[in-house]
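Sample A.
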Amino acid sequence: MRCDLCGRTVNYWAEDLAKVIDDPFHEAHVPPWGCGQCATIDYMSIRWHLPSAQELAAGLTVRRPVRQVVKWIWRDERV
C-alpha cells in the first residue's frame, strides 16, 4: 500500500490482511484503511506484488499484525 500524498509505502502479506479485515467481501483494489502518517485515505493506492527471491534475501520489510487493541472513544455531552 502506498500513500501518494506523503510517499509512505508499507508491505503486507495478503494472508495477514485477510485475517485483519472484518469484511469477507472487501474489494481487493480498495485500501482497507488510510495512511498512518498523514491520516488520509483519499491518496492511498494498493497493488499486488510477488516479491522475488532477491528481494526476500535482501531483507524485505513486511508489516505484520501483533495483537488487536480495543479502546473506548469518549465524547463530552452537555446535560
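Sample B.
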Amino acid sequence: MRILFFLIPLFLISSPLVGNFNHVKTCIKSTCFDARIADTPITRAKGLMGEDSLPKDSGMLFIFPELGQPKFWMKNTKIPLDILFINDEDIIVYIVKNAQPCGKNDCPIYKTTRDASKVLEINAGVSKTHGIHVGDAVQYFVEDD
C-alpha cells in the first residue's frame, strides 16, 4: 500500500515515529528515487560524505526544520551530484548540476537564492537525463510494509 505525503517535512518533524522513517520514495515527473532521509543536524552534516557510490535510482533527501537558504559543499564527498533545492510547496526552486567532489578545505559552497526547506541529492547528470527542471513538482511516498 502506498501513502502519499504532500507535506512530508511537517509529518516527519511532528511525528513520534520520526526514527522509524529512514527512506522515502521521492518522485519528480515519472522518475522516482529511493531517498535516504537526513533530518537531524548530524545526518544533514554527514550527508553522502565518504560514500563510494550511489545507486542510480537512489538519493538523499535533506529535510530542514525551517524554510531558508541551506548551503551545501562537497567536502569528502566522492560522488559527483546534482543538488535539487525544494521549497515548502514541494517545487524545485534551484538546481546545481554536476557538483564535483572536493577533498580539500577550500571547497565551493552551493546555495540557492530562493527559500528551500528540502534538498535532494542525486547522481550527477540524472536531472538532465530525466528532464528535471526548476518549477517541477516533487511528490513523496512512504510504502507500508
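B remarks: Residues 36 and 136 are 21 Å apart (CA to CA). Strands lie at 2-5, 23-28, 31-38, 58-68, 71-72, 81-86, 92-99, 110-111, 116-123, 138-143.
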